[in-house]
Design goal:
- The structure is a single chain.
- The chain is of the alpha+beta class.
- It has two domains: 170 residues, Glutaredoxin (3-Layer(aba) Sandwich), CATH 3.40.30.10; 59 residues, no CATH class.
- 39% of the residues lie in helices and 16% in strands.
- The strands form three sheets. The protein has a five-stranded mixed beta sheet with strand order 5-4-3-6-7. A three-stranded antiparallel beta sheet has the order 8-10-9, with no helix packed on it. The chain has a two-stranded antiparallel sheet with strand order 1-2.
- Strand 9 and strand 10 form a beta hairpin.
- Helix 3 crosses helix 5.
């Protein structure tokens, strides 16, 4: 091979190496990946994310910007639902690309709207057990370091300029549900102009926790207390013993369902207490 051919061959190899490096570097986070750690300022002080999560289920939300209408409604709904996440031993944390000073000023707006939600839902209030005001951290991510690490930053996501002002400094509405081992278990992305369904996010937490605790899988449109699916690796003849159930439903040889095992235990506890 002449010198020109050797150079061309070497150039091709270099190109393939660069393509491999940059394609790997640009890969987005996937379910099962370790959630990237970060240290950032928040409305609750400086936070080291992995230390703050404290080996609990954690949900990280991103928001396009402070003092914007949809973000205000979302953070208010999240504040209203804080007791529900606490029941599930799940920590919640949010971020936007605005400053800490803006976050702190914004909190009072969010709480005011949250109280409207409480009235609209006719939430019953017991003295001493009021729905708490916003008590979760809002991270300041002015330089979009966290947003970039988690793939939350999409300057071309529509609509952009004209709805949120600066088209190049905001995040889409991302949701990362992270297990106690700091592995990402769910990734949701919403466009900037559509608010999230927090009832669905709570449903996902219930499903993930149930699946992890009892080694079951979760059917479509599942709601807490409904039947769940037995994993295909468990033989049918072992189902009753493994799950301590009297019966199961075999729809197909690969699709077997049982009653929600957590509800069954609750029922047995109630019967034993009578």
């Amino acid at each position: 091979m002449n010198l020109k051919g050797e150079l061309m061959n070497g150039f091709r190899k270099l190109c393939w190496v660069l393509i491999f490096i940059f394609s790997g570097a640009s890969n987005a986070l996937q379910i099962g990946d370790k959630a990237p750690n970060f240290v950032a300022q928040s409305t609750k002080g400086e936070i080291n994310f992995h230390e703050w999560s404290d080996n609990k289920w954690t949900i990280l939300f991103s928001h396009p910007g402070d003092f914007t209408p949809i973000c205000t409604t979302e953070l208010a709904e999240l504040a209203f639902l804080q007791p529900e996440f606490k029941k599930r031993k799940t920590k919640i944390i949010t971020l936007s690309a605005d400053s800490l000073d803006d976050h702190l000023e914004w909190v009072s707006h969010i709480d005011k709207y949250k109280n409207l939600i409480r009235k609209e839902k006719k939430d019953t209030i017991t003295i001493g057990l009021e729905k708490p005001d916003l008590d979760y951290p809002i991270l300041a991510d002015n330089k979009l370091r966290i947003a970039a690490a988690y793939g939350m930053y999409h300057p071309k996501a529509e609509p952009s300029k004209g709805v949120f002002g600066d088209a190049n400094k905001s995040t889409i509405r991302s949701v990362f549900i992270i297990d106690p081992d700091k592995n990402i278990q769910t990734i949701l992305s919403y466009p900037k102009h559509i608010g999230r369904n927090f009832n669905e996010i709570i449903r996902i937490i219930d499903a993930l926790q149930l699946a992890r605790k009892y080694d079951v899988t979760i059917p479509g449109n599942w709601q807490k207390g409904k039947q769940v699916v037995v994993p295909t690796h468990i033989p049918s003849e072992d189902i009753k013993e493994i799950y301590n159930v009297e019966f199961f439903v075999q729809h197909q040889d690969y699709l077997r369902t049982i009653d929600d095992p957590s509800e069954d235990k609750k029922n047995r506890s109630n019967l034993n207490g009578q």
